[in-house]
Amino acid sequence: GLYSGVAMSGTEFGNNSSLRCVGGLTASQGKFNDESGICEFLFGDTGSAFIKYKGAGEVGKSASSTFEFIGGTGKYESISGSGTVTRVQIPSAKEGFAQSKNVFKGSYELN
After folding, report:
1. What pLDDT digit, counting tens, does each position of 13-39 carry?
2. Integer CA distances (angstroms), 103 to 52, 67, 95, in order
């Protein structure tokens, strides 16, 4: 998926960034406990940051997952940290697709 970010609550991380992710899960009877993937935050000319995530939930419903920074480029080359992602399902613009609002909360350090 592709994402465009805006920082909230007086923070700057993620503001005017893009995020692209690749991941997967195995659903059984509408539930899953093995969602995992990687994402890249793209910060224009200052570099990028990479996360891995894991989650569980029900297909088509809001859910939460955890994430951990695993590296980066440019300004974010030595990033570390972790947090949670809350995925809030929103009506899809196209049938057969899922859309959501993702709220990332956590902390990071540039070592």
Report:
1. 777 788 888 999 999 999 999 999 999
2. 15, 12, 24
